[in-house]
Fold these 2 entries.
Entry 1:
Amino acid sequence: MTVKWILHWTPTPGSVVNSQILSEISQCVESFVNAVKDGRWKATLTFYRPNLRDQSIPSEFPRDFLGISLLEQPNKYYFIIRGNKIILEADSTILTIMEKLQSYKSKVALNFEGVQYKMGDFQMKVVKVVPNQAESLRGILIEIEYLPLSSIEKAKPIMEEFLEVWREVMSKKSLPGHFTQTEPHFAEYKLPDNYTSQHTAIQYAAALAQLIQSAQLRG
Amino acid sequence: MQQQSQQAPPPHSTSTPPPAPPSSTGGSAAEAPPKQVALAMDKLGEAERIIADIRIGADRVLEALFVAASEPRHGTKPLQLFLKEDACMRRYLQDLRSLGKELEESGVRSRKDFWGLHMPLVCPDGTMVGYAWKRQLAGQAGASAVDRTRLALKAFTDQKRRFFPHLDCGLETNESASKKRCGSVESTLDPKEESSILKMLPDVLKSVEKEVPNLKILTFERLDWLKRASTLNSSTNENSVDHSYPGSNKLRLGSLGTVATEKVAVIEMLVPSTFRVVISLHPAGSTDPDAVAFFAPEESGSYVHARGFSVHHVFRHITDYAATALQYFLGNQVESSLYCLLHWICSYQTLFSRPCSKCSRLLAADKQSAFLLPPVLRPYWQFSLSKILSTISTKDHTSDITPAYHLGCFSEEL
C-alpha cells in the first residue's frame, strides 16, 4: 500500500471550523500542482462503550475503544484501543457478531467524507468530519499520499517536503488555522515499516482524538 | 422386410487387405522425424478419406432401408443395395481399424505424448479428429524443427570455435570457458585484467553486487521473466531468492552451479523499498544491454519489462533518461557498458532522499506537467570503468557523491 500522511485542521484559538474554510481549503488543493479531482471517499468511526447493567465497574473496560471502516477495505473492520496501543484488523462480519453479543454499544458515530485529488505521483484528500446523523462540520482533515513508495521511512523526506510546499501555498490564503500532524507512533502498535490500511486507521483515530481534544479545549 | 430376414447374415470380414505402407510397423522409429511426420500425415489423410467414405456409405444404407420400407414393390433392389453398402461399410471400418493400429504403432496415436505434446481427444464426429491431428502434427513438426535447428546451430558454433578459433564469434559466451573463469576470479585484480574479466556476465553481476550493498540482482530467461512479472506482488518477501518455477535456469550469484549463462536475457535489480529495474540483454548471455526500465518496487503485471513504462511519473522520467544513458554507455564504454550501466543505476538509490545539487530541494515542479518530482537526473558521463574502479577502491561503499538534478534544474546546469 502506498504511504499516507493525515493531518488535521487546527483552527486558531477563537475561530471556528465551518464550511467556508472547507471550501477555501478545497480551492487551494484544486489549484495546487495541476490537481485533478479523482472521486469521493468515505470512512466511518464509531466509539464503543461497554454495555453494562451495573455501571459501577466501568474502569475495567477500555475507555477509548474505537471501530473504523475504510472505503478501500470493504471487507475489513478495524478495532483500536488507543490506551493500550492495540489495533486489530477483523473481517467486516464482526459487526454482526457484535450486534448479536450486545456487549458493546455504539456511543458516537462519525463519518469521514472526502474528495480525492490526483496530482502526478501524489494524491490528496480533503476530508470533512461530520456526525452520523447530523450535517454539522466537526473537523477537517487532509490526507497526503505518495504513490510510488510503500515504505514509511523512505517516504519521509518526500512527504515532509510536500508538506512544506503545501503549507507555503496555504499560508498565502491566510486562513485562521493550520494543519498539524499527530505523531501516529506506529512502532508502539507493533506495525511494520510497510504501509497498510491498519496504519491509515491508526492515523485517523489519532487525528480524531486530537480534534476532540482541541474542541474540548475551545469550548 | 421378410426378404431381408431370410437372408443369411452378410460376411463379417472382407477380403481386401488393409492398406499398409511398407515401413509402417517398427521401422518408423528408426526414421527421421520429418519422414515420420510425413507418413503420419499421409495416413491421417487416408483415415479422413475412409471416414468420409463411411459417412457416405451410412447415408446409402439408410437410403436403402428407407426405400425398402416405403416402396416394397421395388423387389430385391434395395436389398442388394443394402448388402453392398453393408459390405463396403464393414470394409471401411476394418481399414480404419488397421490404420489406427498403424498410427498407434508409429507413435502418433498414443496417449503417451510421444513427441512431448498432448494429443487431442477423439471426437464422436470422425472428421474433426483428422483435422485436429493434422494440426497437432504440424505443430509437433514445427517444434521439433526448432529444436533440431537449435541443436544444429549449437553443434556448428561449437565446432567452429574448436576448429577455427581465430574467427571471432563474440556473440555467445562459451559455457565451459565462463565456468572456468568464474572459478578463478579473485576479488582484487589490476584494472586491465579486471576489464577483461568484466566481459563475462556472471562476473559483472557479481562485482556489482559486491560493490553496492543492499542490492539484489536476479537473472532470468526471457520467457521466465514474463511469468515472474505478473506475480511480483505476491512475492512480497524480498529476502527470498527461491522461486518455484520448475525448469527456470536462474543464475544464482554466489552459487555458481551448472546454470545456463548463455540463456540469461533479463536482469532484475531491486533496491528494496526504492525501485526495481529491468534490463534486457541482447543477445542472451552477453554483456550487451539493449533496454532498461525503472519501476516502483510494488508494481507488478505484464507491463513490467525492459521496454515497459511505470505508471508513476517519476519512474517514467527516469526510464526515458535511462534510454539516453544506455546509448551513451553502448557508444562510449563499449567494453564495460553493462558494468557502467549497473553502477549508474545504483546511483539512484538516493532517489527519494538526496536533494538536487542545484536548488537543494527534494521536490520540484516539472515544467510541463507541474507535478512535483524528486531529482530524476543523474549525469551518466561520469560513469566510466576507470572512474568507477578508482572510486570504489579509494573510499567506502556507503557514501555516494553522484550529483542529482531535477529535470528543470539540469538544463540550466549544462
Entry 2:
Amino acid sequence: MDETVAEFFKRTILKIPMTEMMTILKAWGFLSENQLQTVNFRQRKESLVQDLVLLCEKKRASLNDAAILDIVYTQFHRHQKVWDVFRMSREPGEDIDLFDMEQFKRSFKKILQRALKNVTISFRDAEENAVWIRIAWGSQYRKPNQYRPVYVVYYSQTPYAFTSSSQLRSNIPLLGQALTIASKHHQIMKMDLRSRYLDSLKAIVFKQYNQTFETHNSTTPLQERSLGLDINMDSRIIHENRIEKERVQRVTQETFGYYPQPRLEFAQYKLETKFKSDLNGGILAEREEPLRCLIKFSSPHLLEALKALAPAGIADAPLSPLLTCIPNKGMNYFKIRDK
Amino acid sequence: MAGTLVRGLSVLAHLERLETRMHRSRKKLEEPQTVQAEETALVTEIQKLRRLRDKLRAEVKRRQAGVKASTANVEPDQTWEITEQEVLERKWENLKAILQAYRFTGLSGRLTSRGVCVCISTAFEGNLLDSYFMDLTMQKPLRIHRHSVPVFIPLEELSAKYLETNIQHFLFTVCEYLNAYSGRKYQADRLQSDFAAFLAGPLQRNSLCNLLSFTYKVEPRGQSFPLCARLLYKDLTRTLPTDVTVTYQGMDALSTSWEEQRASQENLFRTKPLHHVFTSFARKGEMLDMSLVS
C-alpha cells in the first residue's frame, strides 16, 4: 500500500472515538465480521489503529476505500461541519426528470476530472435516495489534499444540495457546475442559510418541520399545550396580567406552532440603513450615509430561544417578522437596506 | 304572746294546709267520677285517633297503588326520552365514524380555522398506503399554507397552474401524482423485499421511483442467464412503465429463440406491475419443481 494511503488510513481511523470504533467499522463494511473479530479492541488506541491499518493493507484497501471510511465518519459526526445550502433550478417545461444515480455519478466525476487532473471523488449511497459525495481537491501540480475534503449531500430529484463549508473557496463554482449539469439543472445559487445541523437544514428547505395536521382521526385539539405557564397550579398564587400572558401565549403558538423547531445556531443581520430618530436634531440624524452594522444572534438552539422570548417577558409579542420568518424563508443571513 | 304570733302565723299556714288537704280529699271522693269521665273521654279520643290513623293508612295505600298504576302508564314516556338521547348519540358517533372513514375514498378534508386541511390517502391494488396533507388558506389568493407532499412531487408547478383557477382539477391532479408515486414505490419495495432472491445486484431507484434498473434471473437458483432490465416511467401519473429495455447481460447478438424470450420479458414488464411479473416467475419455478418431483 502506498505510504500516503497508509498514513491517510491511520489518521482517519485515529479520528474515530473508541466507543464508536466497532459501529463505524461495521457501517463501513470493508472489513468483514470475521476479520474484525481477529483484532483486539481492548488494547491501546495506537496499537489498535496499527492492527487495523495492517488488516486493510492485507486486504488491499485502496484510497477510495479510505475515502468511504472518511464519509462514514463524517456521517456519524455531521455536526462537526458547517453546512451551506445550494438551490438549483431548471427552465420550466423541461422533460420529466428521470434521475439515474449511476449516470449522475459518472457525469459528476467526468466534469470535475476534466477540469482538474488531481481530484479524488468518492460516493456513498444514503437513505431516501440521497448520495454523499466526498471531494479532495488538488491542483494542476499537486496531489489532492485528503485532509481538507468537501462533502456534498444530494437528494435525488430535488433542487437542493448541502455542502460542507470549505476554506478552499476557489473550487466552489466548479463544484456547483458539476452538480448542476450532472443533476440536469440549469442554474445554481447559494442560499443565505447555514448551520451545523444538516438534518435541520433539510427540514427547513424540504418544509418538513411542521407536520401535525388536523384530521378527523385526531381527537385531541392542538391548543392544549402551554409554554410552562400553569395558571391554575396553586390557588394561593394570583397571576396579575393573566390576560396579557394568555395573549402572549396565543400569539407565540400561532407564530411558532406546536412542533419542535429546526435547529440553527445563529441569525445574522447586516444593516445598511440611515439613522432614524424621534428626536429632531442630533449629530447622527444629519448623517447622509447609511450606518453599517452587523447584528448576530447566537444560541445552541436559536429558534427555540426566540420562541421563549415573549413568554419570558424579554420581548414583546408578536416578535419582529425579521426573526420569525427564518424557517419560512429558509434564511438566517439577512441584508437590510433602506428602501 | 310572741310564740302565739308565730304560732298564729303557723296556725294560718296550718289552716291553709288543712284546707288544701280537704280539697284533695274531696277531689279524691269526686275523682272516680271525673277520672271515669276523663277516661272515657281519653278512650274516645284514642278511638278517634285510631280511626283517623286507619283512615290515613288506607288512603296512603290507595294512593301508592294509584301511583304504581300511573307509573305503569308513565314509564313508556321516560324510556322514550332515554332512547332519544341515545339515538342522537348514536347518530353523532356514526357521523364521526363516517367522517373518519372518508379517508378511504382517497380524498377527504376537514375545516380548520384558516380554511381546510385536505387529506390525500393513496392506495394501490387495494392496499392502503401513505397519506399526505395540504393545509389550504381560504383567502384571496388561495394558497397552500403548509403540506406534507414530498419535495420531488411538482406541487408548486401544479398549484401555480390550477390552484386559483380550478381547485377541483388541482386536487385531482395532485391525487393522481401521489397515487401513482405510491404505487410505483410499492412495486419497487415489493421487488426488493419479496423477490430479492431473483435479483443479481441491488435495485437502482430514485426518489420518484420513475427509473428502475436491475439485473435479474428468471430462476433464482437455476442456470438461466442474467437479464438486465431498465424501466422508465415517463408519465408520472401512471404506475406502469412507458419505456422498458431488457437485455441479456453481456450479449449483443441473439439467436431467434433468445430474442423471442427477451422481447416477451420486455412485454411482461410493460404490461404487468413489477411484483406481479416476479410472482409469475416464482410460480413458473414452482410448477417446474412440481413437474420434476412428479
